[in-house]
Design goal:
With 600 residues, this protein is of the alpha/beta class. It contains 25 helices and 16 strands. The longest helix has 16 residues. The mean pLDDT is 94.
Amino acid sequence: MNHPKTSEEVKAVALATADDLRETIRRKSKLKGRQPDDASLAEVRSLIGLDASRRDLLIENLHKLNDEYRALHDRHLVALAKEMNLPMAEVYEVATFYHHFEVVRGNDPVADITVRVCDGVSCELAGAKALLEKLPSILGNSKVKVIAAPCVGRCEQAPIAVVHQHPVLFASLDKVQAAVKNGMTTQVMARDDAHFEPAGFAEKSISPLGPNQLISPDYVGFEAYKAKGGYALAKEIADGKHSIESVIKAMENSGLRGLGGAGFPAGRKWRIVKDQVAPKLMAINIDEGEPGTFKDRTYLERDPHRFLEGMLIAAQVVGIDACYIYLRDEYHGCRELLQLELDKLKANPPMPLPLIELRRGAGAYICGEESAMIESIEGKRGEPRMRPPYIAQVGLFGRPTLEHNMETLYWVRDIVQRGPDWFSAFGLNGRKGLRSFSLSGRVKNPGVKLAPAGITIQQLIDDYCGGMQDGHQFYGYLPGGASGGILPATMNDIPLDFDTLQPYGCFIGSAAVVVFSDQDRARDVALNVMRFFEHESCGQCTPCRVGTAKAAQLMKAKSWDKGTLEDLATVMVDASICGLGQAAPNPIRCTQKYFPQEIA
């Protein structure tokens, strides 16, 4: 084929001069987006150090900035993104996910002190609403901010206010005003030479009675714990004096189940994770955010090494390479105490230790869900994962993970040393074991009650709490915290334990029991709980995010729209990813079933 020849030579046309090309290259090479200023970079580096650029330390770094500047300034977030080599959008979405972080722009004012008033069920029963209404005008200072906060884990000392990181027990206007005036913003450390033997409190009250309680009770420190035989068992297991199989058998035969709420048999969980491929990790859940629950705090602030020894025993038996302890941010005193005692343990270890890291939550109830907690430990938004795979196979950092509530590990030493029959011998009404009931509300003596599994609410009130408060008649109770449903006082003979409450539309969860009286209304309690769920929904799935908000709106009506509420409940139960959305309808259904006269 013959191609035609060009009639004339093609001439070159200059598209740009050399200077134009240089300007184009310069413009394209310039970094896009907001760039950090030198001062902000220096401030960030001075706080986080040179070795804090790991992706999983993002939340820890945000805490350091938030503690130092009382807020997260946008300029610091830009610098932090640069320092950690992360997209700015990722840093911002994590910072805005957690309630305890406040992002401010430019030179926007920041309060010197934030006063948080708990508006959980127990605190609302004790008068928290009046505190919230009156405190802003009484404090009268633009540098002091007063906000409502979800349950802070001190329900037995209600109402509670927290001045920055200083809890005000049995709070009154005068007490809070005095704390602010005197600059009381941190929690003082207690003495570390106390004696505390939890087994000796079986069938007794662990919490002190009456209003004269210490913010930081004396506790068993490292030396005091070792002097009473502490860590001897863990060392014996490390030295091969106890077989791995014998320890697992003791756990299985004791009947100990997960005390964070799920109730999965602890020994079986050890066996499952033990058979996984190494390296394996452990995640300990102390994000005790269920309204009405405070048992973990009660044990941790009195005897932290008993839990740590249980953790080390589990690590040796299962073959754990690293342990991550996730502690809720509201427990400021516990965090300082635990870090101090961990440092002592690492400085003088009784046996080779795995890597142990203490991680700090940031005010997100959803992180009590095990997979959401793992996401948070990895420095991400605390959003639950889809299952399968289960975290025993693919968990923290993609490795097989043993996840436990703190109290589950707390009983390991006693079960192995005393024998499984010691633990299983307790029980009533055909149930076995001990339960740490966090009991609050309209009773005379609230607190943690170490009672036999299967005890009834009436026995707890009469035998452990000194009865109802004067002038109050028992009317109803939450047997398992905010998500465990609501029952009337006429149903006071149900054994309280795993698997006994499901036929009534309830569950025991972490054994948080809130008692209310004839001066209260179940519908108000249910609305308080639903508002909590609305506030704490992570927003990942629509049925929970929209359903809790719509339900809270409908529950304000004098007469409930039962049909629409039931439709919402069905969708939330069937389509929510995790237990928050699945359990959120419990207070609706229980109120409709057991307290119909209040919503007709």
